[in-house]
Amino acid sequence: MLENPKKRAKRSRQGLEIIEYTRQKMTREFFRYMFMAIFNSIFFFVLYWILNKGAEQSSIDFLNQYPEPFSWFVSFGIGTVQAHYVHRRFTFKSTTPYKESLFWMLVVYSIIAVISSFTIYGLVHELNIDSNLAWVINNCMFGLAYFAGLRLLAFPPELDSEE
User: What's the confidence (pLDDT) of residue 110?
Assistant: First the structure.
């Protein structure tokens, strides 16, 4: 589980070659990923919207000043656990041990969570973009990074149940 991320990604890349991971298979898998990501995003957005409205009404000064980054970060964390189950079961159909895949998914998502929390702050507070539109932009900006990180680290191809 605590394998070096570079070694794990390299091993996964070799696994892609071994199982003859063609462009056609990647395209099918990416579309399956996108379908599941839409489902996950709806869940994530509803949670973000509820938290954002609650934070705006909060008497806690920090939450009142920065409801969007707070709401993004909290809903991101909850949505990650839900997304792990969906991607493990339906997108990648992986037999990777549950704790191992959750660990690597948390690594991938944590890195993106930090970066995307800063970008949503910039979109809303620096560029004055509506918070809901900023949510959409932010999600789209990181979609391919999620897919690559999940495929190479959390759900290595050699552990797919379809193979």
Answer: 87
Interval 91-101: pLDDT, tens: 888 888 888 89
5 is written with which tokens? 């991320």
Within 8 A by CB and 6+ apart from 153, the residues are 5, 8, 9, 12, 104, 105, 107, 108
Residues 6+ positions from 135 with CB-CB distance below 8 Å: 45, 48, 72, 120
Give the model confidence (pLDDT) of 39-80 as tens digits.
888 998 899 888 888 877 776 766 777 788 888 888 988 988
CA dist 73 → 18, 80, 163 (Å): 38, 11, 36
Single pTM value for the model: 0.70
- By C-alpha distance, which of 103, 100, 104, 41 is closest to 76? 41
What is the rounded CA–CA span in Å between residue 136 and residue 158? 33
Give, rounded to a whole angstrom, the gap between the first and last alpha carbons of the chain.
22
